[in-house]
Specification:
The complex is a heterodimer. Chain A is built from 5 helices and 6 strands, in the order αααββαββαββ. Chain A is an alpha+beta fold. The relative contact order of chain A is 0.18. The mean pLDDT of chain A is about 95. The chains are: A alpha+beta, B alpha+beta. Chains A and B meet through helix 1, helix 2, helix 3, strand 1 and helix 4 of A and helix 2, helix 3, strand 1, helix 4 and strand 3 of B.
C-alpha cells in the first residue's frame, strides 16, 4: 500500500496523540483537514494491509498484577521449529522469535506469577532438543517507546 | 501492583478485542462492558495519567512500513558503566526498548537495546554509533530470522485466591 501525506499524518497521530474523546476520528479529521469518514476509510485500509494491527490501550502488565520476562533457549536447530510451536501454544507467550545465535529461541512471557513462569520454563526445558532455557527478567527499564514514523511523516 | 475494581477489569477485558473503527468507538466498548461511554473514557484518561497504560493508540505493523531489520543488540557492560551506556542508547531514535537484564557465565550481556531500521546495515550502524560514543565494544546484534508469534497480551481478571472475595 502506498501511503500519501495524509496517511502518514494519520499513522503519526494514531500512535502518538490518540484523542480520548467520544468521537476521536472526527477529532483527528478536524486536526488533519479531512472528514471523519475519510479517516475511518484510510485506517480500515491500513488495517487490511497490516500497517495498523489494532488500536487500544497498551497496559503496563506489572500494573495489572502480572509478572513478565524475556526467555532465551538454546535449541538444536533441527528441532527449533517444533519447540517454537510448543512455546507459542502458551497464551502467556506474546512474542516468539528465532534469532541467529547459539541462544536461538527468544520469547516473552506475561504471566500471573513467577511460579507460572518457572512452570512454563520447566516444560520448555523438558522438550527434546532444548539444551538450556533461561529467564532474563528486566532489572531496569531505561526506555520503552514504540513509535514508527511513516515515510513523509513527522520524523520520516 | 493491581488495585483494580471489578468494573476496571470488565473494561480491561472489553479492550482485548481492540477499539472498533467506528464514529463512537468508546460507546461500543462501553456496550461490551455494560457501562457508560463516560466511565470508559474516564478510566482510560486516569489510567494514562497514572501510567497503568503506557499509551493509548495504534500498534503498527512496522515491517510493512519498511522496518525490515529488527536487531536485538546485547552488550557486556560492567555494572559501573551501565547507566552511561544506557543513556547513549536511549538517545538513539532507532532504539525502541532499552533494558538491563541479568548476565551469566555463558551469556555475559547485561544491556539490551532493540534497534529498528530498513536494513541490517542501518541497524548495525546504530549499534556502531553507540559503541563509538561509549567505548563499549563487547556486543552482538541478534537479528530475528523467523517470527513465530507476535500477539497482544490478553488480560483477564485474576481468579480470587483462598480467603478472598
Amino acid at each position: 500500500m502506498t501511503l500519501d501525506a495524509l496517511d502518514s499524518a494519520i499513522l503519526e497521530w494514531v500512535q502518538a496523540e490518540f484523542p480520548l474523546v467520544p468521537a476521536p476520528f472526527a477529532e483527528l479529521a478536524k486536526e488533519l483537514g479531512t472528514t471523519e469518514q475519510d479517516v475511518l476509510d484510510r485506517l480500515e485500509r491500513m488495517r487490511r494491509d497490516g500497517l495498523v494491527r489494532d488500536i487500544g490501550p497498551v497496559f503496563d502488565p506489572v500494573r495489572l498484577g502480572c509478572t513478565t520476562t524475556l526467555c532465551a533457549a538454546r535449541v538444536d536447530p533441527a528441532r527449533v521449529d517444533e519447540v517454537a510451536a510448543f512455546v507459542s501454544e502458551f497464551p502467556e507467550v506474546t512474542h516468539n522469535y528465532l534469532r541467529e545465535h547459539e541462544y536461538n529461541l527468544w520469547f516473552t512471557l506475561i504471566a500471573e506469577s513467577r511460579a507460572r513462569i518457572e512452570e512454563i520454563l520447566g516444560a520448555v526445558r523438558g522438550r527434546a532438543g532444548v539444551m538450556a532455557a533461561r529467564s532474563l527478567p528486566a532489572l531496569r527499564r531505561y526506555k520503552i517507546r514504540v513509535h514508527f514514523a511513516a515515510p513523509g511523516g513527522a520524523d520520516g | 501492583m493491581a488495585d483494580l475494581s471489578s468494573l476496571d477489569w470488565t473494561i480491561v477485558e472489553a479492550f482485548n478485542e481492540g477499539l472498533p473503527l467506528a464514529p463512537r468507538p468508546f460507546a461500543e466498548v462501553a456496550r461490551r462492558a455494560g457501562c457508560s461511554e463516560d466511565e470508559v473514557l474516564a478510566r482510560l484518561r486516569a489510567w494514562r495519567d497514572e501510567g497503568v497504560i503506557r499509551r493509548f493508540g495504534a500498534r503498527v505493523g512496522h515491517r510493512r512500513l519498511g522496518y525490515r531489520a529488527n536487531g536485538m543488540s546485547v552488550w557486556a557492560v560492567p555494572p559501573c558503566g551501565v547507566e552511561r551506556v544506557a543513556e547513549a542508547m536511549v538517545r538513539q531514535p532507532e532504539v525502541s526498548h532499552c533494558y538491563e537484564r541479568p548476565a551469566f557465565d555463558d551469556w555475559p550481556y547485561s544491556l539490551y537495546a532493540m534497534i529498528h531500521g530498513a536494513s541490517e546495515e542501518e541497524v548495525r550502524a546504530v549499534a556502531g554509533r553507540i559503541a563509538e560514543e561509549t567505548g563499549c565494544r563487547d556486543y552482538e546484534v541478534l537479528f530475528s530470522a523467523k517470527e513465530y508469534k507476535k500477539t497482544r497480551p490478553f488480560f483477564s481478571r485474576p481468579e480470587p485466591g483462598p480467603g478472598q472475595e
